Amino acid sequence: MSANFEAKKEVVEEIKTKINDSKSVLLVTYDRLTVREVTDLRNKFRAIGGEYKVYKNTLVRKAFEELGISGFEKDLNNATAFIFCPDETGSCSVLSKAVKDEPALAEKVVPKCGYVSGAYVDAEGIKKLAAIPSREVLLAKMLGCLQAPIANLAFVLKAIADQKS
């Protein structure tokens, strides 16, 4: 076997590992991005533990096939970047925020689809996932809801005690 074939097999194995280690994989079309824009995107995804990477579509197609994942055949064409993320909504939120912060990116970076928690998600699903707050924000809201009745009771009891004084 040629060295090129072996190198491609190694890349396919790397892609399979990244897919298995990620809870979400986004496929986005990128076009006419400057080096600064790509670097900024990579840094934003790295900040949440994700990774923005460009692979050959044929190698990613092969990795999906070997993992028994289907549904991505029509999306693996043209210039495609892959975003691997350790949580379900982080990459969608970062991408959405980046496009809001820099409107020029809206035409340059367009979500195609995603593989989230073992399921295919279309572009509309990615937009919906972007609207979901992060896990930390959801936990903080839940704790706030649980703590509110106790805090209100303490406030009322203190008001009653202050009136009697």
Can you describe this structure?
The chain has 165 residues and is an alpha+beta fold. It folds into 2 domains: 3-132, Ribosomal protein L10, N-terminal RNA-binding domain (Alpha-Beta Plaits, 2-Layer Sandwich), CATH 3.30.70.1730; 133-165. It contains 7 helices and 5 strands; from the N terminus they run αβαβαβααββαα. The chain has helices at 3-21, 35-47, 57-67, 90-101, 105-108, 123-130, 135-164; strands spanning 24-30, 51-54, 80-85, 109-116, 119-122. A 5-stranded antiparallel β-sheet has the order 2-3-1-4-5. Strand 4 and strand 5 (119-122) form a beta hairpin. The longest helix has 30 residues, at 135-164. The model has no long low-confidence stretch (mean pLDDT 88).
Properties at a glance:
single chain, Alpha-Beta Plaits, 165 residues, 2 domains, 18% strand
Distance between the termini: 90 Å
Question: Could you say how many structural domains there are in total?
Answer: 2
Rounded to the nearest angstrom, the radius of gyration is 22 Å
From N to C, what is the helix and strand string? HEHEHEHHEEHH
What is the number of helices?
A: 7
The number of strands is 5
Structural class category: alpha+beta
The percentage of residues in β strands lies in 15-25%
What does the largest sheet look like? 5 strands, antiparallel
Q: Strand sequence of the main sheet, in spatial order?
A: 2-3-1-4-5
Q: What name goes with the CATH superfamily of the largest domain?
A: Ribosomal protein L10, N-terminal RNA-binding domain
